[in-house]
Amino acid sequence: MAYLDRVFHCLSDGTRRAVIAQLASGPASVGELARRHHMALPSFMKHIRVLEESEVVISRKTGRVRMCQLRPDALTAAQGWLERERRVWETRLDQLDSFIETLSEKENARGNR
Amino acid sequence: MAYLDRVFHCLSDGTRRAVIAQLASGPASVGELARRHHMALPSFMKHIRVLEESEVVISRKTGRVRMCQLRPDALTAAQGWLERERRVWETRLDQLDSFIETLSEKENARGNR
């Protein structure tokens, strides 16, 4: 799976998005995250694995506690892709607007002749 | 599946992202899109269905041709979510920076005493 495929797949689940939102305000342990989501640890660990495989989250075990944090630039590529496409799309709509404007000006000019 | 789940799932596939990129520069028929991706029509139609179910693309049949176009605001919610989280994350990093700066200033002041 390509990098962007993995990142967007990772974002396609509400629990994983909530974990990202929580980690955006600071690192947390897997236990803390699981409690917040009222989820049994084994099911929750599956989400953590997806978050790690998509390179959005890094975790590290210190003693008996596994700490998670967002990777710097975790969301940059996904955001960049969306911004680029939206720019293309908006440029096209602007061109369409000015085309329609030109058409109606020509129409008016013809009507005034 | 929640709306954002569906949008991000839709974005998690390279073919679907390429279709979105193509439609950002203007509407196209399903046939044109399938040819561009060298894909058999039935497999390609599965992607079109996902794009429609996630409310990213609208298609309409005119005679024998099915035309596709991006929905206005197709990507707004996904982009909005990413921007919001990134802002939280960057604010946190800025706060961390100024905290470290304050710490090292205190450290220097102590060294100079």
TrEMBL record, chains A, B:
GO molecular function: DNA-binding transcription factor activity
InterPro entries: ArsR-like_HTH, HTH_ArsR_DNA-bd_dom, WH-like_DNA-bd_sf, WH_DNA-bd_sf
Short name of one Pfam family: HTH_20
Domain HTH arsR-type per the UniProt entry, residue ranges: 1-89
PANTHER family with a match to the protein in the record: SLL0088 PROTEIN (PTHR38600:SF2), TRANSCRIPTIONAL REGULATORY PROTEIN (PTHR38600)
Name of the protein in its database record: Helix-turn-helix transcriptional regulator
Taxonomic lineage: Bacteria, Pseudomonadati, Pseudomonadota, Alphaproteobacteria, Acetobacterales
